[in-house]
Amino acid sequence: RDSNMGHEVLLVDLAGTQNDLATHFGLSIVEDDDADGVTIDAPISAVFGDDWAFLRDNIDDLLDRMTFPTDEGPDLIPADLGLGGADNNLANVPLEERYQKLDGFVEDLVADQYDLVIFDLPGKEDNIALNGLFAARNVVAPLKPGAFERDQLQKLDATLDEISTDLDVDLGLALIIPTIISSQETLSESFVEYVTEEYPEIVGEPVTKTADIGNNQNAGRTLYAVPDDELYATGKRAREAYSANTEQLLTQLTDR
Q1: Is 104 buried (19+), middle (13-18) or exposed (0-12) by CB count in 10 A?
Q2: Average of per-residue pLDDT across 132-147
Q3: Stretch 162-189: mean pLDDT, rounded?
Q4: Which parts pass through the membrane (predicted)?
Q5: Three-state DSSP class for 17?
Q6: Where does 27-126 have alpha helices with state H?
Q7: CB within 8 A of 100, min separation 6: which ones?
Q8: Paired residues of 38 in beta bridges
């Protein structure tokens, strides 16, 4: 969507080896060159390793080798199997450097080529997630209705405040998106009301519950790749909400 708005966008999947983002855009990541799909030549996990400075300074077109184009505009750096080991290795890095690896990568290689970088982060507070938060500074939280999710949102907000203080960095929620919202369900209604009251400045447009999202994920495409006549009315409303949320997010962000 952002590419349609004149931005060069990079998506970075740090959320685990299922490679949900790659699957969502129809990319099949494989381990073997002979298999049907694409192999990772230069993994994102290398950014967190001891050899990164050498690789950065000595390999030509390194960012191009890390990224894959999607059919929908954004480029993608997929997750890789080395991220688990990278998280463990970061525990041995001095604290003042531990959470700045990804930020350095963005500054050194990414910033010249892309206007916007979006990280998909793991749900746990590990060293990889903290690197992502440190690099992004702005957090987008999509949340479905429920007491557990409401609790998670409060914890996330408090955790970001703690991390900001501990690491002396300005982290915060930039956008909260209520998702899987149904006008027929009181739980949806009360959840949207709660988020709107608690976070009026950063709550986004609620995204309608629709079968179109899951159906098209399985087909390896987002709602933006689907012709209007193939979408349900709910799918069209969901896509409009995502567009409105994108525009809202862009007004919240500042250049770095």
Answers
A1: middle
A2: 96
A3: 94
A4: none
A5: coil
A6: 52-58, 62-66, 83-90, 95-98, 101-105
A7: 131, 134
A8: 29
In this structure, are 128 and 6 located in the same domain? Answer: yes
Helices then strands, each counted (H, E), the chain: 11, 6
Say how far apart CA 117 and CA 169 lie, in whole Å.
18
Q: Which of 93, 110, 136 is the last residue of a domain?
A: 136
Residue 156: pLDDT band with limits 50, 70, 90 = very high
Q: Is the pLDDT of residue 71 over 70?
A: yes
Q: How many residues does the chain have?
A: 256
Rounded alpha-carbon distances, angstroms, from residue 13 to 59, 80, 96? 22, 9, 24
Structural domains counted in the chain: 2
Pairing mode, if any, of strands 138-143 and 172-178? parallel
Answer left, alpha or beta for residue 137, where phi above 0 means left and psi between -120 and 50 means alpha: left
pLDDT mean over 220-224: 95
Q: Do residue 16 and residue 117 come from a single domain? A: yes
